[in-house]
C-alpha cells in the first residue's frame, strides 16, 4: 500500500475480505499509526515528511520488492495520479491498481483533457492560456496539473490579474490557465469504474459543493439538485468523457452545475476518491473490491448503473480551526469516540453510521500530512434523516486534544439552507453564521464549568483517602466556597459552588475575571447566586457529572488531561484549561514581532530586511498539512529582521520577522 492513514486502512479492510495479504509502509512519525498495526507486514521509510517518505516512489518500490509484493494500491492521493510511478510499478513486474500510466499522463494535463472531452461533445468552459485573451471577469486561475484546489484564485478585475497569475505560478511551479468563473455553481461528480473489456459503469452522482479553500468537507448522494433526467444526462456525459480518454479503473468525472441545469466538464479524477463511502452506502458495492477486480483483468459484475437506495451524507472531520482561516491544528488526540457506529470501511448492510478513520485514542496529529482525521457517514432512507442522524452523532462525539472543524460541520448540517438543499460552492461565504461557536447558550457553558469543577473535586477526593469520607465538595466548613479558574471559550472565568452539611449544592456561580487579577486575594468570595437556576447534583465522579437543572436532568462527561478538562454533553463540547491563581509573567517580545501561528515549513519569503511594506502585504508563507498559509504585514512599516529562510522548519511561537511600524 503506497499510502497511509484512513485510505490505507480502507483498502486493507477489503483485502482481508478477499484473502489478500497486506503490506504497509510507514514514516518515523507513523510508527504507531493504526494502518501500520492492521497490516500483515510493514516496512519502515526513514523520515517524517511526505516528500521524504510516502511520495518517494523509488523507496516504496524498494520496500515492495523487499516484502515480496506483487501489486501496489496507491490510495486516493499522492502517487495515485503520478504517471511516472505507475510506469515504474509496471516495469518492476507488479500490478498497478489504477489507470495505466499513459492515461494518467493524459489526465494530469487539465488543458489537454478538456480539449479531448470537448471534441467528444461534452460541454466545457472556455480555456484561456494567454492573459491578453481575457476580457470578461471574473475568471478562475488554475494550475494545469494541480491537485486539491492548490493555487486556484478568483480574479474579479484586470488590475489584479497579472499578480494573481504570478502567485499561482510561484506557488505551484506549473503552467497556468484561466476559465470563466461561474457564480452560484454546484460541484457535482459522477463516480465511474471502467474495465479493460469496454464496460463503463457510472454510480449516480455525488454533491460536493460545501467546500473550503476549493476542498470538499461535506459530500452526499444523491444530489438534491439532480432529478432522474439530469442524472441520466450527467452519467451519459461521464461515459463519453471516460471513453474519449481511454480510461480504465476507478475514478470520478467532475462537473460544474448551475441553477438552470446547465453543466460543464471540470476534470477527471483518476483515483478512488475520499468521498467514495457515500456511493458504497447507496449502491451496496465495495468499490475497492471492484478496483482490485479490474486491476487483475476481470470484468465488472454488473450490467449497468446500480440502483440508488436511500441517501448518504459524509463529513470530513479535520484538525483545523475554521474561526482562524482554517489554521491546521496539531497535538495528541487524547480521545476520539463516535457513538453508535454501525460499521467501518465497508458498505453498510442497513441504515446507520459508518466511520472511516485514520486515528484513534493517543494518535499524535502532526503537520506532515493533510488535516483529515476521519470521515463520518450517515445512510438513511431520506436526506432529512441522514442529515439529522449525522449532526446528532457529531454533537455526541468525543474529540479531545486537537482543535477540529466538528462544530462547524454540525452547524452546516442543521442550517436551514442546507436542510432544503440550497447549497453551492459559495455556501460558507454566504453563511458566516456557521463559523460561530456551537455553544451559543451562556447557560450551557456555565453548566460545563460547574461540571468540570465538581469532577475535579471528586477526582482529588478519590486520590486523597482522608477526604473520601467527607460529603461531595465539602472541606472544613459547610459554608466554605470551592472555586477554580478556567480559561474558557470566552476567556478566563471563575467557577465556584457551596455545599450544605448534607452534601447538597447550596449555590454556584460562574463569572468572568480579568486575567491580570488572577492573583488577587478577593477571588473566591461568593457573588450573588440569583442568576442561576436551581441545580441538584445527582451524581459526581471524576469522569461523569449528572445535574438536575431546574427540573431537567443532564449528564455531562468530563475527561481531564493534565490541567485541561474536556466536557461533553447534549449541549455540545467545551474545553476548559485550569489557570493558576498566580500565573507566571509572559515572556516579553519585541514590538512588531510576527510569530509563527503553527508549526510548519517556510515555503516562500517575499521580502528582505530593510524593505518598506504596506499593511496587509504578503511577507512569507508557511506550509503545513499540505496547505500554504500566508503571513501578512499587520501594518505599514520596514522589515527590521527576517531570521527565517525558505525551507526552514519552525514551531508555534517562533519568530518569523520583526517590523518597525510607521
Automatic annotation (TrEMBL):
Protein source organism: Actinoplanes auranticolor
Span of domain Lipoyl-binding: 585-660
Keyword tags: ATP-binding, Biotin, Ligase, Nucleotide-binding
Taxonomy, superkingdom: Bacteria
GO MF term set: ATP binding; biotin carboxylase activity; metal ion binding
Domain called ATP-grasp: residue spans: 109-296
Name of the featured protein: Acetyl/propionyl-CoA carboxylase subunit alpha
Domain Biotin carboxylation: 1-433
InterPro entries from the UniProt entry: ATP-grasp, BC-like_N, Biotin_BS, Biotin_carboxylase_complex, Biotin_carboxylation_dom, Biotin_COase_C, Biotin_lipoyl, CPAse_ATP-bd
Cofactor: biotin
UniProt keyword Iron, yes or no: no
Amino acid at each position: 500500500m503506497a499510502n497511509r492513514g484512513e485510505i490505507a486502512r480502507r483498502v486493507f479492510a477489503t483485502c482481508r475480505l478477499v484473502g489478500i495479504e497486506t503490506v504497509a509502509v510507514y514514516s518515523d512519525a507513523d510508527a504507531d499509526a493504526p494502518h501500520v498495526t492492521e497490516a500483515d507486514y510493514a516496512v519502515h521509510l526513514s523520515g517524517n515528511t511526505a516528500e521524504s517518505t510516502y511520495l518517494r516512489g523509488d523507496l516504496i518500490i524498494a520496500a515492495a520488492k523487499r516484502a515480496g509484493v506483487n501489486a501496489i494500491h496507491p490510495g486516493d492521493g499522492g502517487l495515485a495520479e503520478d504517471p511516472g510511478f505507475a510506469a515504474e510499478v509496471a516495469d518492476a513486474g507488479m500490478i498497478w491498481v489504477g489507470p495505466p500510466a499513459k492515461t494518467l499522463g493524459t489526465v494530469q494535463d487539465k488543458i489537454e483533457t478538456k480539449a479531448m472531452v470537448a471534441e467528444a461533445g461534452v460541454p466545457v468552459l472556455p480555456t484561456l492560456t494567454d492573459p491578453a485573451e481575457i476580457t470578461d471577469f471574473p475568471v478562475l486561475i488554475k494550475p494545469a496539473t494541480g491537485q486539491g484546489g492548490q493555487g486556484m484564485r478568483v480574479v474579479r478585475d484586470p488590475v489584479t490579474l497579472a499578480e494573481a497569475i504570478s502567485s499561482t505560478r510561484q506557488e505551484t511551479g506549473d503552467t497556468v490557465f484561466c476559465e470563466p468563473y461561474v457564480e452560484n455553481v454546484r460541484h457535482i461528480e459522477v463516480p465511474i469504474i471502467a474495465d479493460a473489456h469496454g464496460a463503463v459503469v457510472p454510480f449516480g452522482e455525488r454533491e460536493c459543493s460545501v467546500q473550503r479553500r476549493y476542498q470538499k468537507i461535506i459530500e452526499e448522494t444523491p444530489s438534491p439538485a439532480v432529478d432522474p433526467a439530469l442524472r441520466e444526462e450527467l452519467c451519459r456525459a461521464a461515459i463519453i468523457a471516460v471513453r474519449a480518454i481511454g480510461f480504465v479503473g476507478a475514478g470520478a468525472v467532475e462537473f460544474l452545475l448551475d441553477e438552470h441545469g446547465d453543466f460543464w466538464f471540470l476534470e477527471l479524477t483518476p483515483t478512488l476518491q475520499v468521498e467514495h463511502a457515500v456511493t458504497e452506502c447507496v449502491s451496496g458495492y465495495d468499490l475497492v473490491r471492484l478496483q482490485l477486480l479490474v486491476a487483475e483483468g476481470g470484468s465488472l459484475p454488473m450490467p449497468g448503473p446500480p440502483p440508488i437506495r436511500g441517501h448518504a451524507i459524509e463529513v470530513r472531520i479535520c484538525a483545523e480551526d475554521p474561526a482562524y482561516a482554517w489554521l491546521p491544528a496539531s497535538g495528541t488526540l487524547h480521545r476520539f469516540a463516535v457513538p453508535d457506529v454501525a460499521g467501518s470501511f465497508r458498505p453498510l448492510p442497513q441504515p446507520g453510521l459508518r466511520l472511516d478513520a485514520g486515528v484513534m485514542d493517543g494518535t499524535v496529529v502532526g503537520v506532515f500530512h493533510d488535516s483529515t482525521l476521519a470521515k463520518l457517514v450517515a445512510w438513511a432512507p431520506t436526506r432529512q434523516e441522514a442529515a439529522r442522524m449525522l449532526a446528532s452523532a457529531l454533537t455526541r462525539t468525543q474529540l479531545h486534544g486537537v482543535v477540529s472543524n466538528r462544530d462547524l460541520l454540525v452547524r452546516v448540517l442543521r442550517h436551514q439552507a442546507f436542510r432544503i438543499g440550497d447549497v453551492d460552492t459559495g455556501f460558507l461565504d454566504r453563511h458566516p453564521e456557521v463559523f460561530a461557536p456551537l455553544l451559543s447558550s451562556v447557560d450551557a457553558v456555565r453548566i460545563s464549568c460547574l461540571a468540570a469543577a465538581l469532577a475535579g473535586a471528586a477526582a482529588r477526593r478519590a486520590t486523597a483517602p482522608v477526604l473520601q469520607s467527607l460529603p461531595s465538595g465539602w472541606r472544613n466548613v459547610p459554608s466554605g466556597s470551592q472555586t477554580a479558574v478556567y480559561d474558557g471559550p470566552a476567556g478566563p472565568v471563575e467557577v465556584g459552588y457551596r455545599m450544605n452539611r448534607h452534601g447538597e449544592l447550596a449555590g454556584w456561580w460562574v463569572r468572568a475575571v480579568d486575567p491580570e487579577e488572577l492573583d488577587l486575594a478577593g477571588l473566591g468570595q461568593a457573588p450573588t447566586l440569583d442568576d442561576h437556576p436551581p441545580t441538584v447534583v445527582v451524581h459526581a465522579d471524576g469522569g461523569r457529572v449528572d445535574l438536575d437543572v431546574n427540573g431537567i436532568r443532564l449528564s455531562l462527561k468530563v475527561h481531564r488531561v493534565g490541567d485541561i478538562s474536556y466536557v461533553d454533553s447534549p449541549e455540545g463540547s467545551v474545553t476548559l484549561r485550569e489557570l493558576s491563581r498566580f500565573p507566571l509573567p509572559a515572556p516579553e517580545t519585541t514590538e512588531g514581532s510576527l510569530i509563527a501561528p503553527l508549526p510548519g515549513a517556510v515555503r516562500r519569503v517575499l521580502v528582505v530586511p530593510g524593505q518598506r511594506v504596506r499593511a496587509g502585504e504578503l511577507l512569507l508563507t508557511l506550509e503545513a498539512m499540505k496547505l500554504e498559509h500566508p503571513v501578512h504585514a499587520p501594518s505599514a512599516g520596514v522589515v527590521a529582521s527576517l531570521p527565517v529562510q525558505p525551507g526552514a522548519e519552525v514551531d508555534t511561537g517562533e519568530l518569523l520577522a520583526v517590523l518597525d511600524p510607521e
